[in-house]
Amino acid sequence: MAPEAFVGKSGLFRPAIAFESDNGAGGNSGGTDPSPSGDNSGEDLTGLKNALAAERKRASEAEKQFKQLQSSFDGIDPTAAKQAMENYKKLQEQQEAWNQKETELTNQLNEGFNRKLQTASQETETWKGKYNDLLTRTLAQQAYEAAGGRAGGSEDGITYFDAFFNNIKGQLKLNDKGQLEVIDGTGARIFSKKNTSDPMGANEFFAGYSTHPVFSHLFAAQGNSKGGGMQPGTGSYKGNGNVTVIDRNDIEALSRPGVLEAIAKGDGSVIVR
Fold it and tell me: How many structural domains does the chain have?
């Protein structure tokens, strides 16, 4: 043994192993010198063994899981499995294509339905408007006749009621109950003079026209008024300048183009007496 092995930490000679006489047998007692007091090699060895044991346990668990996974594929043909995956992929692509097509078809159907619905709604509103116009005219004619309106008309088919209705229909409105009410130029409701809490109806409204300076000729005569028919000694004539004087009973003159418009303007070009 080299001399360095017998040198202690202090530099003095210190034998590592004590020898005893073996009486010529060549053996030794097996006694050893204790390890130095600061050596922790035992603790390091224990930690190493524990780490090795944990690693072996993890490896064993991994091997066990791998074998379980491997056994789950037992009996499966790799070629068939690959074909099945390809078929599944194709089915997915076909499903996505169909979903897109279905969305397009749904949108087309919705657009077509919405167009038809809009058209039907417009047609409904149109027919509703026509119905309301017809109902308004029918109720107005009934009220006109009840107020003593003149029947008949000219040879061209225009009736006395037509001449009257075309001038006052803007003041009539159907309410929610299907009844005629009278409104002013702003659309506000006009109330009855007989009962101020009720809307004015067509009958009351038309009755007031029987004494109107222009429209009274469209109603039957009442008392001494000249409301109905031609009166003797009356007529229409051209006044001085551009002023035309028309008798209120001269239906033909009042029906001429522009006459009623001129009367409504009140510019003095047409005078009705």
Answer: 2
